[in-house]
TrEMBL record, chains A, B:
This is Clavaminate synthase-like protein. Belongs to the JARID1 histone demethylase family. Residues 133-324 form the JmjC domain. SMART domains: JmjC. InterPro entries: Cupin_8, JmjC_dom, RmlC-like_jellyroll. PROSITE patterns: JMJC (PS51184). Signal peptide: none annotated.
C-alpha cells in the first residue's frame, strides 16, 4: 500500500474558490423581492446551491417595523430582565491578543432590565460595550412580550420543511462586532431597525480565515471593578478564525496582510459584503463564514430577529469538511516550514 | 511564497467517501411513492442533496406500460428508421483492451427500420450486439409515433423549473451494457419494460474509477464484413473510467482487484446497486457515475425513457471538480511510485 501522495493544497483550494464563484456565487449578494419567491424557487435557487440572497418585502407586515422604538420596547418589557454581553471593546466571542497569547474572549454575561440596557447603550464613552446577543431562542425565552410584533416566515418554514430550531433577537450599537464564524444552521436574518453589515465567505474558503487554537477566556470584573480577561480553569483550547476583516489601524492592516495573505490576496475573489436594512431578510446559508457589524447611525441601536432552521447534513457538509481538512493541512505545513 | 504542501490525498478521499455515505447517502437507494412527493419535497430531499431515489407510481398513466410490445412498436413505427449502435460484445462507449493498447470503443452506427432491429435482437448467437441508444432527444426525433404513449413528468419539470433538454428512448437486450460515466444533467430514468440494473458511485468517488486516457476508436466492418476496431484519424485521446464492475471471469475479477483496489476495497462503502423495474422512475443525480445493465428475461428487450434536465452549476459542481483533481493527483502519483 502506497503512503502519502503529495498534493498542492494551495493550488487546489485557490481553484475551488474561483470555480465556486465563477460558476454560481459571483461577487455580490443578489436581492430578490418576496413576491418573486415561492418556497420551491427559494429552495432551488438558493438553499440547494448554498448561496446567500437578500429578500425584500418579506416582513412588511411585521408591526415591529413601525413600533419598535426604545421607549416602546422598554414599556412592553417592563421589569423583565434580558441577557446582556459586555466587553471592553465590543468584540465578544472573538480572538483577543494579550501579553503575547491568543485568547478566544467570551463576554461577561449579566441580566438587566431593558431600560437599563438602553440607557447604557445610549451612554457614550462608557469604556464598555454591551450587546443583547443571547442565542438561546431568546425571542420567545426573554422577549416574550414582543413576540406578537413579528411573525414566522411561513414560506421559509415551508421550504425547509421544519419549524425553526430557535428564534433570536439581537440589539446592539455600532461598537459591537461579531467575529467570523459559521453555524450548522440555515439562517433567515431579518433586520427591523438600523443596518447590519455582513462580510461573508463560503465554506470552501475556510483556509482564508486562518483558524488557530485559542485559549478560552472570559471577561470578568476584577477587584477594582474593571473588566479583565480571565482564562478558563481548567485550560481549554478552541479553534477560531483569526482574521479581522476590519483592522482598526493602518499598522494592523499591514500586519494582517502579512499574517493572513490568503484573506487579502487580490488574485482571489474578495469576501462578499452585504448591507441588510430595515424590512430586509438575509438568507445566510449553512456553514457560511460570516462577520457582522452594526450601522445604527441615528437609530442608536440595530435590532434584528433571526430564525435558525435545521440544515441538511448532505454531501455539501461532507465537502465542507474536506475544505476544512485541506485548510488545516495548508496552514500546518506553513508553520512547519 | 511557500510551495507544495504535502497532503495525503488517499486519506482525504477515503474520509470524503465515508462522510458522504454516513451523513446522507447510505448504502441503498431509497424508494418513495409518487403520492408522497411534491415537487418541493423531491427537490429538497433528493435533488438539493444530489442523492438518488426510485419513485414508484409516477408513470402508471403511461399507455406505453400496457401497449409497448415489439409488435405494437413495429406497427406504429412502420418503415421509419432508427439509430442503432452495434458492437461485437455489447460494450459500446467503453474501454476495450486490444493488442496491449487501451481504446475507448465507439460502436458502429447504422440506421434500420424497427422491425429489422427487433428481429436482430431476438436472434441468438449472432456474434454481434445491437442497442438503440441514441441520446440526441431520440424519443421525439426518431420515435415520434410513440410520443403520445408517454407523458412528461410534470412534477419533475416543476421541480427543476425548466423543460427537459432531451428525452431519449432506449431499447436493448441483456448483452448490452453501458460503462461507468457521468452526465452534466439531472436524469429522470423511467423503465417501461424489463429491468435496468444501475451501479452507482457519487461524484466524490471519482478516484475509485481509475480514469485513464484511452485512444478513441470505432467499430467498423472490414473487407470480410467483420466488425473491427479502427482508431480515429487523427489520433484522439479521451479520459474514461477503466473499472468494469462485472468482470466476466474469475481471472478478470482478480486482475481488477489488483489494478483497481479502491473500487473493490472492503473498507470502503460499496457502490450502490439499484434495480429499476417497469413503471418505476430513477432520479439519477447530476454527475453521479453510473453503469447500466439490462435484465430482459422473458421480455427479450428492456425499454426505457429518460428525461435530461439542465443541472445547476453550483458549489456541488465545484466540489466535484475538486474530487476529480484529487483523484488525478492520487493516481498520477501512484504511477510515479
Amino acid at each position: 500500500m502506497i503512503g502519502s501522495m503529495p498534493v498542492d493544497a494551495r493550488t487546489l483550494l485557490h481553484e475551488l474558490t474561483k470555480e465556486a464563484r465563477d460558476l454560481d456565487i459571483g461577487n455580490t449578494v443578489a436581492r430578490v423581492s418576496a413576491s418573486q419567491l415561492t418556497s420551491l424557487v427559494f429552495y432551488r435557487d438558493f438553499v440547494s446551491r448554498n448561496k446567500p440572497v437578500v429578500i425584500t418585502g418579506a416582513i412588511d407586515h411585521w408591526p415591529a417595523l413601525q413600533s419598535w422604538t426604545m421607549n416602546y420596547i422598554t414599556e412592553r418589557m417592563g421589569e423583565a430582565k434580558i441577557s446582556v454581553a459586555r466587553t471592553p471593546h465590543g468584540r465578544a466571542d472573538s480572538v483577543v491578543r494579550l501579553d503575547g497569547s491568543q485568547y478566544f474572549a467570551l463576554p461577561e454575561e449579566e441580566q438587566m432590565p431593558v431600560q437599563e440596557f438602553f440607557t447604557s447603550l445610549c451612554r457614550e464613552n462608557s469604556g464598555e460595550v454591551i450587546y443583547a446577543q443571547a442565542q438561546n431562542n431568546s425571542l420567545p425565552e426573554e422577549f416574550g412580550p414582543l413576540l406578537k410584533e413579528v411573525a414566522d416566515l411561513e414560506w421559509a418554514t415551508l421550504a425547509f420543511g421544519t419549524n425553526p430550531e430557535a428564534t433570536n433577537l439581537w440589539i446592539g450599537g455600532d461598537d459591537s462586532m461579531t467575529s467570523f464564524h459559521k453555524d450548522h444552521y440555515e439562517n433567515m436574518y431579518a433586520v427591523v431597525k438600523g443596518r447590519k453589515v455582513f462580510t461573508l465567505l463560503p465554506p470552501s474558503d475556510a483556509y482564508r480565515l486562518y483558524f488557530q487554537t485559542c485559549t478560552v477566556a472570559q471577561y470578568r470584573r476584577n477587584a477594582t471593578g474593571k473588566l479583565h480577561l480571565e482564562p478558563e480553569e481548567p485550560s481549554r483550547g478552541l479553534p477560531w478564525a483569526t482574521v479581522d476583516p476590519y483592522p482598526p489601524s493602518d499598522e494592523q492592516m499591514e500586519a494582517s496582510k502579512l499574517a493572513h495573505p490568503e484573506y487579502w490576496d487580490p488574485d482571489l475573489p474578495p469576501p462578499l459584503q452585504v448591507v441588510v436594512g430595515p424590512g430586509e431578510v438575509l438568507y445566510l446559508p449553512s456553514l457560511w463564514f460570516h462577520h457582522v457589524r452594526q450601522e445604527a447611525r441615528a437609530d442608536v441601536c440595530v435590532i434584528a430577529v433571526n430564525f435558525w432552521y435545521e440544515m441538511a447534513f448532505d454531501c455539501k457538509a461532507a465537502y465542507a469538511k474536506l475544505a476544512d481538512q485541506l485548510a488545516a493541512e495548508l496552514h500546518s505545513n506553513s508553520h512547519a516550514n
